[in-house]
C-alpha cells in the first residue's frame, strides 16, 4: 500500500507539473500572468476542483513554498547585474523597506473596516499583501518582451527581488506579537526596530561574506562539470538555512549571495546559470501548485466582496501613495512613478505568508488567508493584463535595443574571457551595405536560409544572415554597430530619440548658440551629457529626456561600462507625439519648482500693486 501511495504521489505531482507547462502556452499567447495559470491548475486539482485532492497541511505547504522561494530569490540575485543594481539601488531599497511598511499601514485601514479584524490582525493582513511578486514582475518584463526605460525596469526588478525579506519579517514578527496577546506602542517600536536591524543586518552581512566565500571555495575545487551547478545551489541553500537558524533573514542572505556569485568569475558559472533557469521554473510551478491545492474556493464567498474592495484599494490607493512618497526625492518623472505604482503585482509570496497565521492558530487566520488569495487574484487580473498598454500610454516603451539574438557564455580553460555571439544581419547595417568586416570581427560560421556554410564560401554578407562570432565581451558594442544596427534610424526610432543626434561632449553653450535655448546659470561650459546626468539625478538611462524650450534633449546612447552618456538626441518639436503626463506624482524637484514659481508670482503681484 505504501508503494502504491508513493507512485500515486509521483503520478499526481508529475502530471500537475506537466499540465502546468502545457497550459503556460495560454500565458504566452494571451498575455495572462503565468501565476494565474499555475494557480488555476492547482485550484482545479484541489478539493473543490475536479481533481478532488485534499491538501490542508499548513506546515508542509509553508515548507515547500519557502524552499521554492529561496531558489527563486537565489536565481533573482544571480541574474541581477551590478550595473542594473547600481542604476536603481537607492530607490529600490527604499521601496522594498519603507514602501512595504507604508503599504502595510495603509492596507490595515480597509482590512479593519471591511473584514472586521482587530487592528493587530489588520496590520498583519497588510504585511501579508505588502510585497510585490518577483516571479510575476520578471515574467511580464523579461519573458513578456516589454521594453521600457532602463531605470524604471531596473527599479521594478530590484524592488520585486528585495522586498520579500521585509514582508516576511513583518509578517512573522506581527504573527508572534499577535499570538502573544497583542502589542503596545512600546513593544511595536522597540520590538520591530531591534528585530529588523538584527534580521536584515545578519542577512545582508552573511549573504555578502558567504557569497564571496562560496565563489572562492568553488574556484578551488576540481570537479566534474555537471557537479558545479549542484554544489553552487546546495551551498547557497545551506547559507539560507544557517542564517535563518541564527534569526537572520535567510531570504535576504540567499539573494545577496546569488548577486555576489552571479557577478564574479566562478568555475561552472555558465552551467549554474542554465541550471538555475530550469530549476527556477520548476520552483515557481511547485510553489504555485502547492498554494493552489491548499486553497478552498468554497470558503471564499463570505469574504469575496470585502477582499475585492481591499484589492482595489491596494491597487489604486495604497501602492500609489507608498510609491510616490518613496520615489519623491529620486527625480523620477510623473509617468515613471505612475508606472512603478501600477506594476505592483501581488503573487505567491502573499499567499505563502497568509499560511503563517493558520499555522500559528490565530482566530481569524482562515479569513485572512482567503482574503489574501482574493487580493492576489484581483491584482493579477487587473494589473497583469494591463502592463503593456499602460507602458505605451505613459510613453515608457523604448525602441528595441539592437544587438545579438543569442549569447552563449563560455567556460574556457585558464580563465579565458570569450563568448559566442549570434547576430542576424540587419538591413541597412554597415556590413549589409558592403562595409568590410575587420579581422577581429570575422564570423566563424554563417547560416543562410537554413544552410550553414564557411565564411569563405558564403560570399558577401546578406541581410537576414545569422553569423556566429567568438569575441571578447569588450567588443560587444562595436559588433552591434557592424551587424545589428542600421546606419539610419527607423521613423519610429526617430520619433522617440529625436530628429538628429549630437555627441554628448558638446557644451551647453554651443547648444544655446545653435537653438536659442536658455541655459541654466553656470552651465555654459558644461558638457551636455554631464548636465543631463546631473539633471536626471545621477542615474541616466537610454530614453530619458529633459525639455529645454524650444527643444527636448534625449539620452540616445550610453557607455554601459561607465554609465556615461555618449550620444544625445534632439527633438525640435517636444510636444509632437509626446504622451500626456499624469496630473499627479510630482517629484521633489517639481514641487520645489512650483513653490518657487508661486513665490515669484506673489512677489510680482505685490510689486505691481505696491
Automatic annotation (TrEMBL):
Location of the protein in the cell: Cell membrane
The keyword Chloroplast is assigned to this record: no
Membrane-protein topology: Multi-pass membrane protein
GO BP terms in the entry: proton transmembrane transport
Annotated keywords: Antiport, Cell membrane, Ion transport, Membrane, Transmembrane, Transmembrane helix, Transport
Residue spans crossing the bilayer: 6-28, 35-55, 61-80, 87-110, 122-141, 200-218, 230-257, 278-297, 303-327, 339-362, 368-387
Database matches in Pfam families: CorC_HlyC (PF03471), Na_H_Exchanger (PF00999)
The protein, known as: Sodium/hydrogen exchanger
Molecular function in Gene Ontology: antiporter activity; flavin adenine dinucleotide binding
Main location: membrane
GO annotation, cellular component aspect: plasma membrane
Amino acid at each position: 500500500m505504501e508503494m502504491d501511495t508513493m507512485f500515486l504521489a509521483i503520478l499526481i505531482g508529475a502530471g500537475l507539473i506537466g499540465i502546468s507547462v502545457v497550459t503556460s502556452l495560454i500565458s504566452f499567447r494571451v498575455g495572462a500572468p503565468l501565476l494565474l495559470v499555475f494557480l488555476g491548475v492547482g485550484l482545479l486539482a484541489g478539493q473543490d476542483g475536479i481533481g478532488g485532492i485534499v491538501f490542508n497541511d499548513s506546515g508542509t505547504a509553508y515548507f515547500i513554498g519557502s524552499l521554492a522561494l529561496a531558489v527563486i530569490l537565489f536565481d533573482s540575485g544571480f541574474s541581477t547585474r551590478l550595473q542594473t543594481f547600481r542604476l536603481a539601488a537607492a530607490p529600490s531599497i527604499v521601496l522594498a523597506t519603507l514602501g512595504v511598511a507604508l503599504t502595510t499601514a495603509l492596507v490595515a485601514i480597509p482590512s479593519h473596516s471591511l473584514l472586521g479584524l482587530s487592528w493587530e490582525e489588520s496590520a498583519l493582513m497588510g504585511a501579508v499583501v505588502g510585497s510585490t511578486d518577483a516571479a510575476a514582475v520578471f515574467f511580464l518584463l523579461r519573458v513578456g518582451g516589454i521594453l521600457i526605460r532602463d531605470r524604471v525596469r531596473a527599479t521594478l526588478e530590484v524592488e520585486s527581488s528585495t522586498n520579500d525579506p521585509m514582508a516576511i519579517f513583518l509578517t512573522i514578527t506581527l504573527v508572534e506579537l499577535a499570538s502573544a496577546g497583542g502589542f503596545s506602542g512600546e513593544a511595536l517600536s522597540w520590538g520591530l526596530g531591534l528585530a529588523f536591524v538584527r534580521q536584515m543586518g545578519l542577512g545582508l552581512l552573511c549573504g555578502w561574506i558567504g557569497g564571496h566565500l562560496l565563489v572562492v571555495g568553488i574556484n578551488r575545487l576540481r570537479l566534474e562539470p555537471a557537479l558545479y551547478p549542484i554544489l553552487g545551489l546546495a551551498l547557497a541553500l545551506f547559507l539560507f538555512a544557517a542564517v535563518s537558524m541564527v534569526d537572520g533573514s535567510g531570504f535576504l542572505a540567499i539573494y545577496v549571495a546569488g548577486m555576489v556569485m552571479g557577478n564574479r568569475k566562478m568555475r561552472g558559472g555558465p552551467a549554474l546559470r542554465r541550471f538555475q533557469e530550469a530549476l527556477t521554473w520548476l520552483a515557481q510551478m511547485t510553489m504555485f501548485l502547492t498554494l493552489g491545492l491548499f486553497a478552498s474556493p468554497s470558503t471564499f464567498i463570505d469574504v469575496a466582496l470585502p477582499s475585492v474592495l481591499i484589492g482595489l484599494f491596494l491597487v489604486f490607493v495604497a501602492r500609489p501613495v507608498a510609491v510616490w512618497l518613496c520615489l519623491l526625492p529620486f527625480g523620477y518623472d510623473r509617468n515613471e512613478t505612475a508606472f512603478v505604482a501600477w506594476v505592483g503585482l501581488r503573487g505567491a509570496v502573499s499567499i505563502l505568508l497568509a499560511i503563517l497565521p493558520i499555522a500559528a492558530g490565530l482566530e481569524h487566520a482562515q479569513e485572512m488567508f482567503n482574503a489574501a488569495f482574493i487580493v492576489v487574484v484581483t491584482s493579477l487580473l487587473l494589473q497583469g493584463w494591463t502592463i503593456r498598454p499602460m507602458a505605451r500610454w505613459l510613453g515608457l516603451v523604448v525602441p528595441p535595443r539592437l544587438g545579438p539574438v543569442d549569447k552563449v557564455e563560455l567556460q574556457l580553460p585558464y580563465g579565458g574571457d570569450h563568448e559566442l555571439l549570434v547576430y542576424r544581419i540587419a538591413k541597412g547595417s554597415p556590413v549589409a551595405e558592403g562595409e568590410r568586416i575587420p579581422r577581429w570581427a570575422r564570423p566563424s560560421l554563417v547560416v543562410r536560409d537554413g544552410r550553414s556554410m564557411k565564411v569563405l564560401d558564403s560570399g558577401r554578407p546578406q541581410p537576414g544572415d545569422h553569423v556566429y562570432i567568438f569575441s571578447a565581451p569588450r567588443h560587444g558594442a562595436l559588433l552591434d554597430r557592424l551587424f545589428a544596427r542600421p546606419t539610419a534610424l527607423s521613423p519610429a526610432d526617430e520619433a522617440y530619440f529625436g530628429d538628429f543626434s549630437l555627441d554628448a561632449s558638446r557644451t551647453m553653450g554651443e547648444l544655446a548658440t545653435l537653438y536659442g535655448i536658455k541655459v541654466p546659470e553656470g552651465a555654459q561650459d558644461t558638457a551636455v551629457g554631464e548636465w543631463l546626468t546631473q539633471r536626471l539625478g545621477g542615474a541616466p538611462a537610454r530614453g530619458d529626456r529633459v525639455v529645454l524650450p524650444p527643444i527636448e534633449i534625449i539620452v540616445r546612447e550610453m557607455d554601459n561600462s561607465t554609465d556615461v552618456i555618449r550620444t544625445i538626441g534632439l527633438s525640435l518639436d517636444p510636444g509632437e507625439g509626446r504622451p500626456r503626463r499624469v496630473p499627479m506624482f510630482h517629484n521633489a524637484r517639481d514641487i520645489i519648482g512650483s513653490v518657487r514659481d508661486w513665490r515669484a508670482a506673489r512677489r510680482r503681484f505685490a510689486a505691481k500693486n505696491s
